[in-house]
């Protein structure tokens, strides 16, 4: 069995003080993908930078205190690649991937965007550059006899069942028609599979992110924006998929919850 977990930690140094380190010590996952670490390796506490029993790859952003992605694996990777060939995002701390036996695993932090601002334009440029890479990566993996899983914060709720208040968010970044259509292309054109929905096709939810504002968490007024998206061969191996939602608001160590999926893959 192979268990992969992904979570946006919303600042790894803060998360480490709230319970992330304890979660990492008890997770059954063999691969853990982190997003929005917001720290260079030298700024991280040792138990996060080099946790015992893990091989760690960190990709930080040139913008201090922004973005940052990591991959932790029980097994030492055969190869590591940071970025996906787009010069603008090469040092943005938004993408890292590792090769394991028979598998390429990636951690993605897609820009969040903000309608009518340069942030949304950046998100659109990222999407335009990333989709062809997904196609390229899938084709290369097929030639090599490998599967691919891209785990992370995709910052798009794909369907109405993926967010609580979908009607009021149709003009907001993260649920724009063009963003949802782009996700369609990830599945239909690039040939990937939303693994969680393969196991849990019905909604609404479960969600993976809840705003810290108001009573969003208590009311389960969330968004499903954290995905594991894989090649079809790996998706066919899925055995269990769950969102590790905290029992209470106070027990959270991030505004996101880990999305953990187990595959019958060796």
Automatic annotation (TrEMBL):
CDD domains: Nape_like_AP-endo (cd10281)
EC number per UniProt: 3.1.11.2
Magnesium is among the record's keywords: yes
PROSITE patterns (UniProt xref): AP_NUCLEASE_F1_4 (PS51435)
Keywords: Hydrolase, Magnesium, Metal-binding
Annotated ranges, domain Endonuclease/exonuclease/phosphatase: 6-256
Cofactor(s) essential for the protein: Mg(2+)
Record carries keyword Metal-binding: yes
Pfam families for the chain: Exo_endo_phos (PF03372)
Entries under InterPro entries matching the protein: AP_endonuc_1, Endo/exonu/phosph_ase_sf, Endo/exonuclease/phosphatase, ExoIII-like
Similarity comment: family membership: Belongs to the DNA repair enzymes AP/ExoA family.
Identification of the protein by name: Exodeoxyribonuclease III
Species of provenance: Allokutzneria oryzae
């Amino acid at each position: 069995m192979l268990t992969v977990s992904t979570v946006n930690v919303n600042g790894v140094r803060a998360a480490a003080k709230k319970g992330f380190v304890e979660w990492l010590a008890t997770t059954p996952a063999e691969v853990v993908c982190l997003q929005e670490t917001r720290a260079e390796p030298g700024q991280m506490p040792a138990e996060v930078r080099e946790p015992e029993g893990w091989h760690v790859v960190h990709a930080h952003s040139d913008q201090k205190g922004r973005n940052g992605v990591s991959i932790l694996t029980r097994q030492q990777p055969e190869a590591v690649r940071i970025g996906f060939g787009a010069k603008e995002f090469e040092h943005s701390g938004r993408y890292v991937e590792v090769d394991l036996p028979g598998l390429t695993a990636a951690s993605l932090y897609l820009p969040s965007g903000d309608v009518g601002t340069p942030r949304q334009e950046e998100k659109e440029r990222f999407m335009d550059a990333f989709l062809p890479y997904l196609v390229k990566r899938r084709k290369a993996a097929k030639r090599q006899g490998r599967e691919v899983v891209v785990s992370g914060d995709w910052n798009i709720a794909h369907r109405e069942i993926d967010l609580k208040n979908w009607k009021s968010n149709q003009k907001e970044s993260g649920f724009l028609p063009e963003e949802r259509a782009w996700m369609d292309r990830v599945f239909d054109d690039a040939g990937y599979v939303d693994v969680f929905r393969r196991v849990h096709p019905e909604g609404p939810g479960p969600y993976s992110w809840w705003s810290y504002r108001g009573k969003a968490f208590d009311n389960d007024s969330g968004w499903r924006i954290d995905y594991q998206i894989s090649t079809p061969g790996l998706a066919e191996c899925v055995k269990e998929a769950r969102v590790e939602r905290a029992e209470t608001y106070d027990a959270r160590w991030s505004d996101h919850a880990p999305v953990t999926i187990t595959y019958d893959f060796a």
